[in-house]
Specification:
single chain; alpha/beta; two-stranded parallel ribbon; 10 helices; 40% helix; binds NADP nicotinamide-adenine-dinucleotide phosphate; GDP-L-fucose synthase
Amino acid sequence: MGSEIKAGPMRVLVTGGSGLVGKAIEHVVQQECGKREGEEWIFLSSKDADLVDLGQTRAAFEKHRPTHVIHLAAKVGGLYLHMRENLHFLRDNIKINDNVLQTAHEMGVTKVVSCLSSCIFPDKTTYPIDETMIHNGPPHDSNFGYSHAKRMIDVQNRAYFQQYGRLYTAVIPTNVFGPHDNFSIENGHVLSALINKTYKAKKEGTPVNVCGSGAPRRQFIYSLDLGRLIIWVLREYEEIDPVITSVGEEDEVSIKEAVDMIAQALDFKGEIHFDTSLSDGQLKKTASNAKLRRYLPDFTFTPLKEAIKMTCDWFVANYNIART
Ligand SMILES: NC(=O)c1ccc[n+]([C@@H]2O[C@H](COP(=O)([O-])OP(=O)(O)OC[C@H]3O[C@@H](n4cnc5c(N)ncnc54)[C@H](OP(=O)(O)O)[C@@H]3O)[C@@H](O)[C@H]2O)c1
């Protein structure tokens, strides 16, 4: 085992620090007094180190000597990109995760919190899904590459604990959205792609064309809520087994309902069409947040309508710098 880190204020390295979730954590740390006295927080982007490359990963860890790591970096994308590039999602994510976890271990990092995703759960399952069911069957075909790579983080966390006593754990967010998301209509996540589509349709006076029937149901979590929860996990959560970080089952909405909230937030009054010739992906993947609730019964999630409105406002105000 590598040299152990001395006790003292945390030095937290956030991989994927320039992305949707990374920016939300940065906001909580810097704007909501999330940082404690003496702590240092470092937010990495792929420009600082390509974590697919072991040498660059080691160099980044040597440079910053973190005591704690929040591991967010991943090759991520929307449904249609996943369907086209399962091999790339599998290989890049396996490499990124192994490089980060093994380097953290070799350099004596005391805690790592990685990010899984609710879309890695078995396709054929009972609902609601919980943390014990991750490996119970094959994931949905559309994103099997990403899913298997992510599942291996959980396997690896257990192995680091079994062999070396490491406290490396993970959160399982449902669909995340918020400022700094990828709003690309082609490759973005569903909600952000729909915000961009609606914004464009309003500007051009055209209808909004939604891919699929609008029937699939999803639990959406606002990135700032997730940021707050990940910081709690880093400080307080002591299990190796992951925890689902999501709004409750009662807050699941259909894509159609989400589109209506976006239209309202952007004051879009045109027509909305649903293209049923395109794939819907998984019809639902309802996840239970009961475990999270046992730890944090009073955590308040931002109401979806309010969070969508704040995200739309951010997108309109930052259109020139937003990822589109
Ligand atoms: N968004 C969701 O709905 C969702 C849901 C569940 C789980 N998650 C998980 O949450 C984590 C964060 O996702 P996100 O939505 O914040 O993604 P994102 O906005 O696309 O950000 C991805 C981050 O990873 C970095 N990255 C990508 N490839 C890299 C590489 N080869 N080397 C180093 N850094 C690399 C990017 O750096 P650059 O900015 O330099 O490209 C960026 O900071 C991921 O692990 C994802 O799987 C996301």
